[in-house]
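Bench notes, afternoon.
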Amino acid sequence: MSAHPEAEFQRIYLLAEQFEDPPEPFRTGEAGQVWLGPEGRIATDRQVRISANSTHALLGHGVVDELNRLPVEGKVGQGTDVLIPHAVLEDAQLVFYEADRKTYGGNWEFVVGTEPDPAAIEYRVRIVNREYQRTLSQLTFLLGSASRAGRAVRVRI
């Protein structure tokens, strides 16, 4: 909640056509599997691109907070790579399943950031649920695939 009354802010909304390449302060994320390569080096890929819509939905709906309650390597939600170890993948998968279940039938809008005086701008995103739910499904599939392959997952939100 901002210290300023809402009427004082100019609201700037993220547009659907900006989901993949948003202006600041909006951001995107990604996720992929992690494994030990043939030369003993850590290898990773990017299997899921997390749009700005889905990134801010994960933050706004508290999914990131739930992931941070798990024993992950790093802090999810800081825009940096975080490792979800193989042993934690099932629990993380349940977090995404639960998030998907909770979002049906609602209209969601989140404040992403503000620029106080003199600009008095508030950045917001109206969540497109269908796109967000596709991302949750992709993340759930990624975690399941990595679990079956004996790998870990890297996520950046």
